[in-house]
Fold this sequence. Notes:
Low-confidence stretches: none
Mean pLDDT: 93
Number of strands: 18
Number of helices: 7
Helix content: 10-25%
Oligomer: single chain
Structural class: alpha/beta
Strand order of the largest sheet: 4-3-6-1-2-5
CATH class of the largest domain: Alpha Beta
Bound molecules: FE2/S2 (inorganic) cluster
Radius of gyration: 20 Å
Amino acid sequence: MTISESALQVRLRAITHEAQSILSFELVPLDRNESLPAFSAGAHIDIQLSSGLSRSYSLLNDPQESHRYCIGVNKDLKSRGGSKQMHEKLRPGDILTVSHPKNLFPMNESASFNVFIAGGIGITPLLSMMARSKALGIPWRLHYATRTRAHAGFLDVIASYEGQNGVEIHLNFDQEPGGQMLNLNELIAKMPTGAHVYACGPVPLLEAYEKATAALPPESVHREYFSSIDVPANEGGYSVSLARRHQTIQIIPGQTLLEGLIAAGVEPPYSCQQGVCGTCEVKVLEGIPDHRDLVLTDSEKAANDRMMVCCSGSRSASLVLDL
Ligand code: FES
C-alpha cells in the first residue's frame, strides 16, 4: 500500500470504548498548535498500519474542527487484519501515518432536508453530516439500526441533538424483544419532497436501500459501502500498456490488474483492495474496463475513462492506462 503522496503524521491521543466491538480513535497533530488539513462531511482518511496494511475510515467529528480527526472502528470478525490491528495493537501516544482526507460521500449543502440511514458502524460518516447539517441549519432525520443497544456506538453524540429544532432521531434495535428490521420502503416513502437521503452500513442494508430508492431522483440518493459486493476481476487474459512508462504487461488468469502491476514493479496508490475507497483510481486512455467497484457512478463507469485497478479488469483485449 502507499499513501505517501499525501501522508501526514498524527498522534493517537485517545482510544474510547463506544459500544460492543466498537472503539473510537482521536488523532491530533504532532504539534498541538498546528491544524490538520480541513475535511468535509462524509470524508475519510487512509491509515497506514505497521503490518503494511492500509485501511480507510470515515471521519466522524464536526468538519469545523481542525484540531483532530476522529474515527470509529468496528472489530470485524471477518476482518482481513485491519480492524483487528487497530483494536489490539494501537495505544494512546502512538504516531500514525494517515492520508489527507478524501471525500467520496459528499453532502449536498443546499438540500432543504436530510435523511440519514445508518446500519452499525455506518453511523460514522453520518455523524459528521449531522454536525454539518446543524451548522448549515438543514433539518434532518436519522434512522440508526443496530442489533441491540449495546452494539450502538456514539449514542451520546446522537443524544446531544435530542430535542433540537429540525432534528428527528429513530433508533432501531432489531434483535431486542419486539425489534424488527428497518422498513426502508416506508421510511423512504415518508421523506419530505426534495429531501436528500444518505445511507451507510452493511451490504444487505445498502442493497435494500438501492431498491427502495430506485424511483427517487438519482442526485438526491447517496450511499457509501464499506466492503465490496462483487468479486474482483481476476480472469486475466488481457494486456495493459502503461503509457508513461512505454511498457506493456500481460495480466494472467488468477491475477487482478493491481497484482499484475505490482508484479511488474509498478505500484499505484491503493488501500481497501475492495473497490470502495477510490485510492487506486487510474485514468484509462484506451480500452473498456470491466468495472467492479462501488466508487464510480453508473455514468462514470460508462465513460470508461478511469477505473479502480484493485478490483476492475478489462472487457477489451487490451487497456492503455495513464501510468
Ligand atoms: S484500493 Fe480502494 S478502491 Fe481500489
